[in-house]
Amino acid sequence: IIKKSGKDIITAMMPDSNATVQPRTEILISWKPPLENWIKLNVDGALKGNPGLAGSGGVLRSHRGDWIKGFAANFGICSSVKAELLALLQGLWLARNLGISRLEVHMDSKVVVDTLTGITKSNQLYYFTLKRSEER
């Protein structure tokens, strides 16, 4: 039984001979500093499932790469977009509380960036999250 199961697992992991394999492209990424006398905020939301248990993290760094302040947060259960939005809000609140006025923001959520810049009008689901940020 074990021998047969092992063989079945190996067979299942083998690529289909009829399938075409797309070559992988390797992209090197690195942190890019903001302009001199500016601060960079990097944020990212994360979750397990969608919706699922969500959290976020972020860091504020100077143009020399010096660590200023960071955060990690737990949001409970929410969608990936809401986790990304809440991560951004958390980072912006932190920057504001530290008196930072020259801020460059970097995040990996195109949906959030497009929603906040008005490229897309599909922000009805996140109205209360966006409204809460305007009230502060």
Report on the structure:
With 136 residues, the chain is α+β, with helices and mostly antiparallel strands. The protein has a domain of 94 residues: Nucleotidyltransferase, domain 5. The protein is built from 4 helices and 4 strands. It has a 4-stranded mixed β-sheet with strand order 3-2-1-4, with helices on one face. Strand 1 and strand 2 form a beta hairpin. The longest helix has 18 residues. The chain is elongated. It starts with a helix and ends with a helix. InterPro entries: RNase_H-like, RNase_H-like_dom_plant, RNaseH-like_sf, RNaseH_domain, RNaseH_sf. GO terms for molecular function: nucleic acid binding; RNA-DNA hybrid ribonuclease activity.
SSE layout and pairing:
Layout: H1 2-13, E1 39-49, E2 52-62, E3 67-78, H2 80-97, E4 103-106, H3 110-116, H4 127-135
Parallel strand pairs: 1-4
Antiparallel strand pairs: 1-2, 2-3
Which key terms come to mind for this protein?
136 residues, alpha+beta, Nucleotidyltransferase, domain 5, 4-stranded mixed beta sheet, 4 helices, 28% strand
Q: The CATH topology of the domain at 39-132 is what? A: Nucleotidyltransferase, domain 5
Strand content: 25-35%
**Strand line-up in the sheet with most strands:** 3-2-1-4
H-E string: HEEEHEHH
CATH-level-2 architecture of the domain at 39-132: 2-Layer Sandwich
What is the overall pLDDT average? 82
Spatial gap, N to C terminus: 63 Å
CATH class of the domain at 39-132: Alpha Beta
Estimate percent helicity.
Answer: 25-40%
